[in-house]
Specification:
Structural class of chain A: alpha+beta
Helix content of chain B: over 70%
Structural class of chain B: mainly alpha
Largest interface: A-B, 39 and 32 residues
Largest sheet of chain B: none
Number of strands of chain B: 0
Oligomer: heterodimer
Strand content of chain A: 5-15%
Order of helices and strands of chain A: HHHEEHEEHHHHHHHHEEEEHHHHHHHH
Number of helices of chain B: 3
Number of helices of chain A: 20
Distance between the termini of chain A: 66 Å
Low-confidence stretches of chain A: 535-560
Low-confidence stretches of chain B: none
Strand content of chain B: under 5%
């Protein structure tokens, strides 16, 4: 029994080490880029020098817009329209999927008119306006980097797999640590060996961040590997019928049959009357936004889904919806705001907790701090792995371990100054430049790669860690200055002028940079790095005589 | 200290077999368990549970097969789970 316990302990410990080391760099990128991506909108507005976006509810005259759409040449029958009022850009957008292929004739002129619809109407005049193409910002870039989108096709699946192994590493880590979980939580051995310091940091911070990390491991896996759940469910439970599954997973978008019978205007209720009837039960000031989906347009069996998002209670669940049958105005399906059955709330709930969209800035700042703690857990895990192998027993693998360690640390720690550099570059390059994002992100990747290469040649873990902090702190302090020089948005000016996103990013960077620099100044190597180099050299010298004799005869033979 | 290697698998074949079982076997087992439950117990509930449950059960299966020592036993367990659930799915559909 005793030996069985020992075996389980060692097997799970090994599982923890292997899965942890395998995903370390990927996981670090996910958490650090993700921490910044929490503030995606702030960063984008900061970059484009835009004022704080005021998202508020706008009443929309849906019938008037439908009339305008009807004047276009598009084929409208049997379409599903989505309406969204964009209060930031002051327009109402109307989108529709192409007409289902089987209901159109195979004529190219008809095909063009049955294609997707994407129109925008001015909020006040209801005139058609050109759609403003949404420009990508560095906030979007960091968000995409967060799930490895720069890696073509498979990036998001890799991110999902990393999350699964993260879950495995968490569970095995807790298992291994279980017996000492309470006592070690209060232990922090700052003096003595470096390995103890890293181990204590790894376990204590790992336990503090546990619920947060567990949540992200599961929700992250879900976002990355959605296909693994939906593909088999769709094939087996719904016989490949995607629409049928939609009604289970996203009930507001439950599809309804098309009868094929056209409806006449007087027999159908106006969309406005249905929406107004539904919205009358809410206080106008509480409504955050309203989305409308209009299904089977022009058909006898047309349905309208009105979705309301409320701001009244800052709670997890602040959404309600109702599906109306337009022929008689009956509600066919409804979810009031205070009723949240499990099977309708999972997707919504996962979104809220993953993106931290439920408690304003306070929650996001807490998420950010917990993400940084998780980054520290990852780095300290790599350091424990390295320190534990810095022994004579592992001399044969010393060179390999040192190289791997240097690259891992360089790639991880280098990301932090690279992100600071990204913020600097975007403020240096003029906003009207051609292919601007390519230049900005390109220089980001070059900086990151350069730091990794530097780390590989330096091989001094202490220097790699400390210099990354110095670089990030220095560049971080430059960010608000460059922002002030480029746009005149010094943070005190920005606050006064209502550019609150801009001020938020600037002030956050100042705080972050100061903390980073103070940390960098105060960390000291516990073991002298020179000793390690000496040891490494000695070992290399010890190894070389073994190599030389086998090579020498060959060289001599050539000389002769 | 790193894990004591005397308790770990030494043969590369045994290691590979275990990794394949952990990644593919456990994933398939986890998916079919959820599908079978959705068909036999309640479609709507288990479809929404499967959204997060698949990954949790996947990792639970990985822990189980690393805990079980004999490759016959863990492959047997995985195949038993997959076979039973597949039969359940077959009859649940019919």
């Amino acid at each position: 029994m005793e030996s069985n316990d020992k075996r389980t302990h060692n097997v799970f410990f090994n599982l923890h080490t292997v899965s942890g080391i395998a995903i370390s760099v990927g996981l670090f990128v996910i958490f650090l880029a993700g921490a910044f991506a929490l503030f995606l909108e702030d960063i984008n507005h900061w970059e484009k020098n835009k004022q704080h976006a005021d998202h508020h509810y706008v009443a929309v005259d849906y019938d008037r817009i439908l009339d305008s759409v009807a004047t276009t040449d598009y084929e409208l029958y049997d379409r599903t329209f989505f309406f969204y009022a964009d209060s930031e850009n002051c327009y109402i957008s109307v989108n529709a999927q192409p007409v289902p292929a089987d209901s159109t004739e195979k004529d190219s002129s008809i095909l063009a008119l049955s294609g997707p619809i994407a129109l925008n109407f001015d909020m006040d005049t209801y005139q058609k306006v050109e759609s403003k193409e949404r420009e990508e910002g560095i906030g979007d870039f960091l968000y995409h980097l967060h799930y490895f989108e720069p890696i073509p096709v498979v990036g998001i699946y890799i991110a999902g797999l990393v999350a699964v192994f993260f879950l495995l590493a968490i569970v095995t880590g807790i298992w291994v640590h279980w017996k000492k979980i309470v006592s070690n939580f209060y232990t922090f051995r700052l003096k003595g060996s470096l390995k103890n310091l890293w181990t204590d940091a790894h376990t204590a911070l790992g336990v503090i961040g546990l619920p947060f990390q567990l949540m992200y491991a599961v929700t992250g896996a879900l976002f990355g590997l959605t296909i693994l759940i939906f593909a088999p469910s769709m094939m087996i439970l719904f016989d490949g019928d995607q629409e049928k599954m939609t009604s289970y997973v996203f009930p507001p978008y439950t599809p309804y049959e098309v009868t094929g019978e056209l409806t006449t205007d007087d027999k159908q209720l106006s969309v406005n009357s249905v929406v107004d009837q539904y919205l009358s039960q809410f206080d106008r000031n509480d409504i955050h936004f309203v989305t409308l989906a209009l299904q089977n347009y022009g058909d006898k069996n047309a349905h309208a889904t009105v979705m309301v998002d409320s701001e009244a209670e800052r709670s997890f669940y602040s959404n309600a919806y109702a599906i109306f049958r337009l022929s008689d105005g009956q509600i066919v399906r409804e979810k009031p705001m205070d009723v949240n059955p499990h099977n309708e709330s999972v997707v919504n709930f996962v979104h809220l907790i993953h993106f931290g969209n439920y408690g304003g800035y306070l929650i996001k700042i807490l998420y950010f701090l917990l993400a940084i703690i998780t980054c520290f857990v990852i780095i300290s895990g790599v350091m424990v792995w390295l320190e534990a192998r810095d022994k004579k027993k592992y001399a044969a693998k010393q060179r390999f371990n040192t190289n791997v360690g240097a690259i891992y640390l360089g790639a991880c720690m280098g990301l932090y100054p690279a992100i600071a550099f990204l913020f600097c570059v975007t403020k240096i390059l003029p906003l009207e430049m051609d292919s601007r994002m390519t230049a900005v992100t390109g220089s980001f990747f070059v900086f990151w790669l350069a730091y990794t290469v530097y780390a590989y040649f330096s091989k001094n873990y202490f220097h790699i860690n400390r210099n990354a902090l110095f670089a990030a702190g220095g560049l971080g302090l430059l960010i608000p200055i460059l922002n002030g020089l480029q746009a005149g948005n010094w943070f005190w000016v920005a606050i006064a002028k209502g550019y609150s996103n801009s001020a938020f990013v600037d002030i956050s960077w100042i705080l972050l940079a100061v903390i980073t620099l103070v940390t960098a100044w105060n960390i000291r190597p516990t073991t002298k790095p020179k000793d390690r180099q000496k040891v490494t050299r000695k070992r290399m010298a010890l190894e070389s005589p073994i190599v030389l004799p086998t090579e020498m005869p060959v060289v001599q033979a050539k000389v002769e | 200290m790193p894990a004591n290697t005397k308790y770990l698998l030494q043969s590369p074949w045994a290691k590979t077999s275990k990794i394949i079982a952990a990644i593919f076997g456990c994933l398939i087992a986890s998916i079919v368990v959820h599908l079978a439950l959705a068909l036999w117990v309640d479609l709507s509930t288990f479809l929404s549970i499967s959204i997060y449950g698949t990954f949790i059960l996947w990792v639970a299966f990985i822990l189980a097969i690393y805990w079980i020592k004999s490759p016959w036993k863990y492959w047997g367990m995985l195949l038993a789970v997959i076979t039973i659930c597949s039969i359940a799915i077959y009859f649940g559909k019919g």
